[in-house]
Specification:
By secondary structure, the protein is of the alpha/beta class. It folds into two domains: 21-198 and 317-407, Aminopeptidase; 201-314, Alpha-Beta Plaits (2-Layer Sandwich), CATH 3.30.70.360. The protein has helices at 21-36, 45-57, 120-139, 162-167, 225-242, 281-301, 321-335, 389-407, and strands at 63-64, 71-75, 86-92, 147-152, 174-187, 191-193, 196-197, 201-210, 214-215, 251-259, 265-266, 269-278, 305-314, 318-319, 340-342, 361-369. Helix 5 runs antiparallel to helix 6 (281-301). It is elongated and about 85 Å long.
Length: 408
């Protein structure tokens, strides 16, 4: 990256003008409107329309993705001319199928059993705000390199809407990509960064076991299916754990096991379902073969017929060192070195990882906790909320990153 003059940091003229109180208030209102009207993956029609209308109002030309929800918008390119070497700013726009349990909140969800409980409304507003600032900079002739805004649907739906966005051309002309994810453990106005893997791979596993059934008085004459299911539940994670380097963090964890209806009947059918998580990208690529082989091995030992549905989810998000440095420098320029802290690798999955299979990129943890607050509202909980000062911090981060990347 080119060194910057201390008297003229990237985007220094932005705050007094386009990020004045009027834009801050608009972005907070936009986020609250999204929060009140959450939509599930691939159903984000109202959300897409609202983003599209505001970008068009700013004189931009957003394009809805082929899936019908989500959109991309290039800033700094001629109409109809694809950009090249762009930095993409990605937001996910879908909500979760859980109720909003916040009380006395004027902007709580108006849709039953739907909530923005993971902060995607904040992510969307941050990218929109950055887009409005960058569009103004482009009109002033101060945006040296084109930027793409990417509003992606269906992040919460395995294997994630990123795959269809990529198929729809979301990465064409993109050189690098960045994103943020709300973190209720980090104060608003700060970000958390990590080079390398910042999230885990996450796959879904569904198993059916079958046998002839029988009487519990004669288990030796049939397949003792309950015991077979129990051995699969206990032995498969242990076998898998001993067949890979433990530093890879490959873990099979069950969320459901079901079999039988009567105490004296050996059942004919059993089901197990759970997740496979992995901290290491290369081990994740091997995981289906390893897990399926272990299941077959245990099931065959107990004479149970197995049917395995291994649902590929997402690889880990592995932050590129240079792009992580870009985010670090951008936040340092805007808010100082104290606004950046380290962060641990999360065992949660994020489909931003699919973009990183094609271009280098990085994700930052965007602080949303009110400074001094002791109660932590975790993600994917009905009472989750964000300190809205995080919106301005996110806009500053993305705007400065776009300008630093342009001169790097």
């Amino acid at each position: 990256m080119s060194p910057q003059s201390e008297a003229d940091p990237p985007g220094d003229a932005v705050l007094p003008g386009t990020l004045a109180d009027e834009l801050r208030a608009e972005l907070v209102a936009f986020r609250r409107d999204l929060h009140m009207h959450p939509e599930l993956g691939n159903q984000e029609f109202r959300t897409t329309a609202a983003i599209k209308a505001r970008l068009e109002q700013a004189g931009l030309l957003p394009r809805v993705l082929p899936t019908g929800t989500g959109l991309v918008c290039d800033i700094g390119t001629a109409p109809g001319v694809p950009g090249d070497g762009m930095l993409a700013l990605r937001a996910d726009i879908d909500a979760l199928p859980i109720p909003d349990t916040k009380s006395e909140c004027p902007y709580r969800s108006t849709v039953p059993d739907r909530a923005h409980a993971c902060g995607h409304d904040v992510h969307t507003t941050v990218v929109l705000g950055a887009g409005l600032v960058l569009a103004e900079l482009h009109r002033q002739g101060r945006l040296p390199r084109p930027v793409r805004l990417l509003f992606q649907p269906a992040e919460e739906v395995l294997p994630g809407g990123a795959t269809e966005a990529i198929t729809g051309g979301a990465l064409e002309g993109v050189r690098r990509i960045i994103a943020v994810h709300c973190d209720p453990r980090v104060d608003a106005g700060r970000i958390g960064l990590r080079t390398g893997a910042i999230t885990s791979a996450c796959d879904r596993l569904e198993i059916s076991l079958d046998g002839p059934g029988g009487h519990t008085a004669r288990p030796h004459l049939t397949t003792d299916l309950v015991t077979a299911a129990a051995r699969v539940a206990t032995d498969v994670p242990a076998l898998v754990g001993r067949r890979v380097d433990t530093r890879a963090g490959l873990a099979v964890t069950w969320g459901r096991i079901e079999s039988g209806h009567a105490p004296n009947v050996v059942p004919q059918h059993a089901e197990l379902s759970g997740t496979v998580r992995c901290l290491d990208l290369e081990t994740w690529r091997q995981a289906p073969d390893l897990v399926v082989a272990a299941i077959d091995e245990v099931a065959n030992l107990h004479r149970a017929k197995s049917e395995i549905n291994y649902v590929r989810g997402v690889p880990p998000v592995v932050n590129d060192p240079a792009v992580t440095e870009l985010l670090h420098d951008a936040m340092t320029v805007r808010r100082g070195a104290d606004a950046v802290e380290g962060t641990e690798q999360s065992l949660g999955g994020e489909d931003f990882s699919w973009y990183l299979e094609h271009v280098p990129g990085a994700m930052a943890r965007l602080g949303v906790r009110t400074p001094g607050e002791r109660t932590v509202r975790d993600l994917h909980q009905g009472d989750f909320d964000a300190d809205e000062h995080a919106i301005t911090a996110g806009v500053e981060l993305f705007t400065a990153a776009a300008l630093l990347d342009a001169v790097g």
